[in-house]
Amino acid sequence: MISVTGMSTYNALILADATEESQKEVLTTTGQHSRAIASFLEQVSSIETVDDLVDNYEVYSFVMKAYDLEDEIFGKAMVKKILSGDEEDDDALVNKLTDSRFTALYEAMGFSEGGTVTTNTIDPEWQQAMVDQYIEQIYSNEYADQNETLGTVLEVRNKAEGIESYYDLLADENLTDFIYTVLNLPSDMSALDVDKQAEILEEKFDLEDLQDPEELEKLLRRYAIIKDAQDGTATANSAAVTLMSSAVSALSSDGQFVPITIDMSVIYPSTGYE
Question: 77, 169, 171, 210: which one has the fewest Cβ atoms less than 10 Å from its Cβ?
Answer without folding.
Answer: 77
